[in-house]
Amino acid sequence: MAKVAFLSFYSGIVDRGVETFVYELSRRFKLGNKITIFQAGPAIYQEGIRVQQIVAKAEAPKFSKGILGKLCLDLQSIRILIFTLKLIPRIIKEKFDIVVPLNGGWQTVTVRLLTKITGSKMLISGHAGVGSDDAWNIFWRPDVFIALTSTQKNWAEKIAPEMQTEIIPNGVDLAKFNPKVKPKNINLKKPIVVCASALVPYKRIELTIKAVAKAKNLSLLILGDGEMNSHLDSLGRRILKSRYLRLTPPYQQMPSYYKCGKVFTLASETEAFGISYLEAMACNLPVVTTCDDSRQEIIGKAGILTDPTKTEQYAKDLLIASQTNYRNIPYDQALKFSWNKIARSYSSLINELLKH
């Protein structure tokens, strides 16, 4: 039995990829293991999992980093550091076998130094993706780095060839997200393009709004919230009028809103993985997204890879995807990423790690 601690500052505050990863993996990983989730948000009961709230001032994360953010000296980074420092006595006392810091920055540094003292193993899951944030995590040489795609694995091995790097992708709950889900009744003309995302600059949702505006018979349903909500709502209502709707449903209701759509899209510039792709495909929606190697690996033949900065082409690809009969190709692609399979991969890796 392994004792595993997840440090997830934003759990209980938002439901993004990282927070979904923590809960979904822990629910399946709990058998034969003792799981503790430390978070700043309110502790919600999870059967068989210990969820501990560490009192800290916290709010939804902001992604617009200035120079202080890049140096991990912004208010958000300092709050995560204080949260992590409060955990030091507990981590020492409880003697965890595996500690998984999920918020990067000074949290990674603190946990690395702490595990050198306690003898625990540090596992990093590459949710930041290819770039400076995960390069910082790799710099501190975790006992194992989990790449979410082969592209990320190749990148990590170039930075630290001596470090153990494995590929384990993110997953999707196929009992919750599937083609049999009943769609919500919403006041939006069909066919509908669905976009589920945090409303932050690098997601480039304004490109999606402009592309849907070019595709005259499509409507756009945005599921999410964030620092750009006012700007995007203003743009969407101005150029799409009645063809635009943004909602912030609870995570449990997301499958029913995906099922309203004919196609899913996310025009983000970069994406470590994108759990929303899997959720959409599990509901049998084709995906139109940015063309790169990582997303090709995730989407396969279940959609179209495009250049969202070219509005005319992006609009054309959305129309093509909405008019194409993909049969069960999206759902079959999602089957490769069941959380049950992902949990077994993590369990095998951790057992092997503890043997050494």
From TrEMBL:
A Gene Ontology molecular function term of the record: glycosyltransferase activity
Domain Glycosyl transferase family: 182-318
Top-rank taxon, per record: Bacteria
Annotated InterPro entries: Glyco_trans_1, Glycosyltransferase_grp1
Coiled coil: none
The protein, known as: Glycosyl transferase family 1 domain-containing protein
Species per Swiss-Prot/TrEMBL record: Candidatus Curtissbacteria bacterium GW2011_GWA1_41_11
